[in-house]
Amino acid sequence: MKEKNRICNLFGIRYPVVQAGMIWCSGWKLASAVSNAGGLGLLGAGSMYPEVLLEHILKCKSATHKPFGVNVPLLYPQSDELMEIILREGVPIVFTSAGHPGKYTSMLKAAGVTVVHVVANQKFAQKAIDSGVDALVAEGFEAGGHNGLEETTTMTLIPMIRAMSQIPLIAAGGIATGRQMLAAFALGADGVQVGSRFAASEESSAHPAFKQKIVEAGDGSTALTMKQLVPVRLLKNPFFEQVKEAELRGAGKEELKELLGRGRAKKGMFEGDMIEGELEIGQVATLIHSVKPAAEILHEMISEYTEAKEDVIKTTF
What we know:
By secondary structure, the chain is of the alpha/beta class. Helix content is 43%, strand content 15%. Strand 8 (169-172), helix 8 and strand 9 form a beta-alpha-beta unit. Helix 2 runs parallel beside helix 3 (50-63), helix 3 (50-63) packs parallel to helix 4 (79-88) and helix 11 runs antiparallel to helix 12. The relative contact order is 0.13.
């Protein structure tokens, strides 16, 4: 008898696919659509003030009766307020990232919340395991947005983290198709987290101009930058070129902070400024050729995964 997938068991979902909690893309419409389709939708609290997060939680509750969660990047100063709202509203699942995994884990677990932490290296994976998280997301260098300094690819990171622990493991970074999902499972993952593909969904709160840029992306359209601050993968545009020029001439942290300013990601991803905005997306954008409903994206991934698995079984040596 086949065992049910551990990620499906942990979250109470049909398919082991998590929609990443991306800033400016992951509002209640996207999260509820993914959850209703059988995956796990996440609200991206990194771009939300506390009152905005509350609004999205309430709307998500109205739009789906399936499990959903919230992603909270811990580098933001209002994390305490966000967590208070999450606990008060009874959100069942929290993904934390970009900070120490032990900061909120005990408090959340004491309240019955399932806790997952996103890591890019073995050091933080061990800290997360020691803090008692229920699962890990191992996010490789291919991913969009904030990234690891080590630049470890998903294909290397997944078996590295799997060798450390047998807790449920979710692969992230460079995953947008069923065949990539199958590869992640072969490396030891129990599920996948998908960001860029859902950023280019109809329900994504990203600006249409940003979605079009994702669809148009080709080989080499993204790069990791701002390693002196927080490494982030961006689509190349005039703002990216300004950052690149500053880094090449040896600009320090303060100059880069001034250049980055405030609200760059909102300006690009949410407001649609393709010139001066920061456009966070993964390498896998080159495989994204259309904007589709989130449910269609998810079901296509599962169908392709099943077909690919059958192809592998048929292969002989």
